[in-house]
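Board notes (copied after class):
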Amino acid sequence: MTIPLSKGALNEIAQGIEVEKPIFQILGTKRLASTENERYRLLLSDGVTSNSFTMLATQLNSMVTNNELSDYSIIEITRYALSNANNAGKMRKIMVILGIEVKVPGSEVAGKIGHPVQQGKESGASGEEKPTQRADTSSNAENVGQNQNKRPAQNNAPFNANANQKRRLNESLNSGASIMTSPIAALSPYQNKWVIKARVASKSDIRTWSNSRGDGKLFNMTLVDESGEIRCTGFTDTVDKFYNTIEVGQIYYISRGILKVANKNFNTTNNDYEMTLNIDTEIIPCHDTCEDIPMMNYNFVNISEVENLPKDQIIDVLAVVKSFENVQNLTSRNTGRELRKRDVHLVDTSNTLITLTLWGTQAETFDGSNNPVIALKGVRIGEFQSGKNLSTISSTAMQLDPDIPDAHRLRAWFLNEGQREEAKSLSKAGGTIANCEWMTLAEAEERGRSSMDVPTTFMCKATISLIRPDRALYKACPSDSCNKKVLDQSNGMFRCEKCNKEYPNFHYRLLANMAITDWSANLWVTAFNETGEKILGINSQELGELSENQPDEYNDKFSDVSFSSHIFQVRMKMDTYNDEQRLKGNIINCTPIDYKTYNKHLVNELKKITNIHDIK
């Protein structure tokens, strides 16, 4: 079975002539070796000529990896856009394919159709720019960008290139002139003049810095069109000019930005280039309805797959918020700045759970009530205690309850099934009841004694029956990377043996010993600094000042938490002290009781006891 090819269409497209839904044959595919992201070139034939100056939009990459675009397939190009590229000093037209329909799979085609000659080698069929009567419109359009083949009939209007070179984008729009736009996927630093029409998919907060060269501020945003995405950053003056006028979700015409190779340490978009705004940049609202331009281009990874992915890889995730914790205050060891974080526990249809850490404003404003679906663009994989977790970075974009089919299917799964199931967790610490095995204290003690040198990690609901205020604090080395106990030299100096230095100051650290109790047993455990602060509701430095100046209030802080119940995550192992073996338990995490989640655990326990597994 064969379908006639659009003979001569490649030459017409190379000259800037619009061809509606041309039919081509694929003679080969090749991944671009010079790019970090997956980008593919296609070798196409129209039966007369062949051309490899064809680039596939990134959202169509799966058609290559799934072998839909196999050799000899006959395809219809439903949408494309043109760009210019410098090839050995000569300008060539690049066709960026935005839509493909496979008419005949390669397996059903006998072989190559016709005897196509490589474009540029046949007489008069060079892919270079040549003045022809039919190509006048495209040649002139080259001065302001590329020809976007979305509505071919609208792009045939005459266009005065010389006049447009002098006219800014805003003046062109106000005068009603036709604006020729470029697809994001075709942008490169080699172009001088271009206009894109893109949606602002995300916009960061304004960040400031101060160093020896002065003060500054910046923001970044992710721009998306039907061909791809690009990160755009504004500094100082452009922050004042544009930040308050740009709205997430809106579509804008953008021109006169600076394009450069993307710094992948800070840029997670699927593009080899990034854009910087400057004082000449123009950003003009577009009031057209552009349903073809998505809110965001995602490449979602199932949570179950994260277990086998390397640390620091950047991925996109779609999941349901199963539970979340309160905002915590931390101090950066490197900078001394106060940080705010929130842990959120996510699950998807693989029934696998992972902990996501939000930072800064995202942590403060996050609302996880009613178990929203969350779409995350560009989160980093981390490792802790042989487990995996996720963390947002400065460029992470987050959407709650996005209006996309995958999100609706995930919501239906969670309501009908997922919310009642106990998920497998990839995060070994983080405070959710699914992070490790539930045990009573008696079961944990028995497991710990039988496991000998192998630590036992478990989750329990228990009550603090006693917490000792005496010796709960110690004076620690002020070095952020140390925190070891210092010796008072009785001369106003404090010595750290590990650092082999003396310091004029110290900071307090918490080491709280407490007895926790449930119906089955009693267990002595230790809560280290951050966990102890969480339980007592006060930081170590403030607690140390109370111990020095207001001992009664200091003791009250410990009395206030006695007989309070929590969900504890404990690591326990056998330890030898004075030639005697004993169990030693450390609290990894402590959270308030989420009774909704805890009751689900109790229901699962009842199922096991009664051997009933179909309770809804």
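Comment from the instructor: The longest strand covers residues 90-104. Residues 122-166, 429-435 have pLDDT under 50 and may be disordered.
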